Input
Amino acid sequence: MKSAIATILLASTASAAPTGLDNIVRDRVRMEPAVAPYNSATSSWSPATFNKATATKMITVALKVDEQARAKLESIFWAVSDPDHKDYGKHLSLEELTKVLAIPSSRVAKVSEYFEKMGATGIKVSPSGDMLTIHMPVPKLEAALNTKIGKFTHKEHTKMSVLRASTTYSLPEDIASDVAIVGELLQFPGLKSKSLQNLKGSGTWPNSCSNQACAGLVQPEVIRERYNLPNSTEYEQLLGGYVNAQANSMAVAEFQGQYFEPSDLASFSTACKRKVTVDNIVGGNQDSPGVEAELDIEYIKSVSPEIPLTVEYSSEYSLLNWANSINSNSSSALVHSVSYGNDEAQQTSTEYMETCNTAFMKAGAMGRSILFASGDQGVCGREGCGLGIFKPKSAKPDFPGGSPYITVVGGTNFKGAGIGDEEVWSAGGGGFSNTFAIPDYQAAAVAAYKASPDANLPNPKKLAWNNTGRGYPDIAALGGTKTPYCIASGGNFEGVAGTSAACPVAAGVFAKLNGIRLAAGGKPLGFLNPFIYKNPSGFHDVTSGMNNAPPNKLGFSAIKGWDASSGMGTPNFEALSKLV
Output
């Protein structure tokens, strides 16, 4: 992990420390120095007024993990995730993980004491000792971090607002030496475009949902048929009478007021003949409809209605806070679907991404599978590629899509009007990371893609992309605007598209596969990618389409085998069930 200490600010530039506090060093260290301050011209968020004097804010302080400890964690992560390794499936307990990280108690105490003295109203230390969840009044937080906190409202989703730093932030030098980053400051969430909602369908399959609004849209029966999913009786037979459903589990992550309405789930259950319920809620629910949340819930449960579902909710958009929540719970779900992300280059520092990667490794080392949507803006991300002229890194890879430590799910459409072969959705995220190198598990697949004349890779002078970066997505599922999903939300049925539809479907498939392993006395799959890349026969290969970048029509083509627009392809449960 790169050091968080990057720039020592002169004492004259630091805000004066409150009087009466001991050991507050005036020399400060600017954290995440490569991240530019908020820019209204390029942001999807606009400044808004709020009463700063009475506002409070939650932050996640990630403590430094020593290089030796992080290297040991990574070694364990790869070993327990590789089907060919002798330690495959020997996942760590939370107690064992804590010993591997070996965070000195003095580090926890020193950083906690600093924020307590600066006015924190609550500090919670993670069981593994490397994360602090801190609540502070905004004026005191500004003094602690030498920054300015503002309220920002999304330009399209105007009901969504966040508190974020509008300037850089820093810590006293002696505190910064023990801190990797402070989360929930510089990372603005990327929200689904409203253009992916209220869509009509053109499919010619029978409407298996009783609501007429679902006609032509993707429904649970369409998913079951295309991905060769068993019905409940067939699945019970696969499990060989294994009935301890509570041993298996899955979860979806929701942020920023994305709640669900139980009556919507009931309507969907009745109309589309799937039992859709939420078994556990972490973080609360306000019984109000949220399109993103209800899409996740209705379709992960459509795939795996027999597996208990947890909704992990946080009012703050924070990958670190979410990861800290699941990594702090020894009984958290075995499979997690997350439909949120952002560009690597958009308010996301290398320090932030490396800290997230450590959190992902912790989850994988404990046997959790984490799947993220690849994004809905093709190869150019939320910032766009410009006018087609050369500029460095004009392709905008997604994060955490570019992380080597998670499974990334892209989007497809049906090629024809019926259920059958698929093609890449033109706006599905995919490409190559500008930050992370090609991991071993995909090295051969990526090399084969680049060597294939069918790939017709984009000219770097027209679309600058990183030839040595981690390729994504890893797999794909239906999610394009030609094949939107029928969901119940707000008392109505409507069509919704995006890789945020593909991700919960794929997650449900792997949760179902976990059930087969558990029934046979095995361990859960954990981090999925080594298994995926060793078993391409478990997926429907997608060989047509491109995730292009209008108006240039530059992007990555789907070909036989892995590609940077559909990964290994879409799941074939029948084939996968024989491989696990």
